[in-house]
Amino acid sequence: MINTIGVTLSRYADELLSVLRITAAFMFLQHGTQKMFGFPVEARAPFELLTLAPGLAGLLEVVGGLLLLVGFYTRSTAFVLSGMMAVAFWMAHATQGFFLWTIGNGGEGAALYCFVFLYIAAVGGGKWSLDSLRS
To answer: From CA 27, how far away is CA 96, in angstroms rounded?
Structure first.
């Protein structure tokens, strides 16, 4: 039964990759719009472009999130964002407690984004991307 489900789902692997990319990008984009525009919820700190966070982080989250959302320059964008999230994890979260216990140091989102984006950098944006249309 379980093997049948896996075989059935494998037929949709490329579409599911696109769904993963779009969903992750949409959620990631919200972090940037919160920092830059106070939307969809109020920002925690004022936006100042010439700061690491929220400035550079917010800019990368908005621009990178939009590029990933539509699947344009997907691999390079995802690679940059993966690195950004690795840096965010080590600078902001790992210092708050034992780095493997991400639930305690608040770093589970950063760690998960880091590896989702690294995966997308390796495999591309999937069937429903502008990159796919260009090739």
So the answer is: 24
Q: Which residues contact 63 (CB under 8 A, 6 or more apart)?
A: 32
Q: Where are the domains of the chain?
A: 2-134
Q: Pick from 61, 63, 77: which is nearest to 131 by CA?
A: 77
CA distances from 119 to 59, 95, 113, 115 (A): 22, 25, 10, 6
pTM: 0.91
> In this predicted structure, what is the pLDDT of residue 78?
98
C-beta separation of 76 from 118 below 8 A:
no
- Give me the sign of the Cα torsion angle 19, 20, 23, 26: negative
